[in-house]
Design a protein that fits this description.
5 strands, 21% strand, 5 helices, alpha+beta, Alpha-Beta Plaits, disordered N terminus
């Protein structure tokens, strides 16, 4: 687990740009399988949809795994990336009814030359790679603009 100083150092190097596409990953505290619960997973998905309605982010693909979230998104012009992710984590924890997230998150700014449909397929096929299902369509908690 990263120390407070390491976490701060990671955040200090983070660049946030509206319109930029990011691949984000965040995990639950102690890798608890919070989203094995169907209702909790759907509450997190509702928060992602709210971010889009509020123009904080445009979701390109996501998958809610039992203990983490992968989110391919384009950042809106309303808030910086760290605030957008903080909103997702705070609102989902409030809706689930308890603290659920580990501090911090991993972000990757997608380069122009990267293949977005391939990245979206990578995101939504995570349950297959994890052995949770045989085919992506068998998993309930994902969506994508491209697949």
């Amino acid at each position: 687990m990263a120390s407070q100083a390491q976490t701060h150092r990671l955040r200090s190097g983070r660049h946030s740009q509206s319109g930029q596409i990011y691949m984000l990953t965040t995990v639950t505290k102690n890798r608890a399988t919070v989203f094995d619960d169907f209702t909790s997973a759907r509450k997190l998905i509702g928060v992602l949809r709210d971010q889009q309605r509020m123009q904080q982010a445009m979701t390109l693909a996501f998958v809610v795994m039992p203990d983490h979230l992968h989110w391919l998104m384009a950042l809106g012009d309303k808030v910086p990336l760290s605030v957008c992710m903080r909103n997702v984590k705070t609102l989902s924890a409030l809706r689930v009814g308890r603290p659920i997230w580990q501090a911090g998150f991993h972000d990757h700014a997608v380069r122009r030359e990267e293949d977005l449909p391939s990245l979206a397929r990578y995101v939504v096929s995570n349950p297959v790679r994890a052995g949770l299902v045989v085919k992506t369509g068998q998993y309930a908690h994902w969506d994508a603009v491209w697949v």
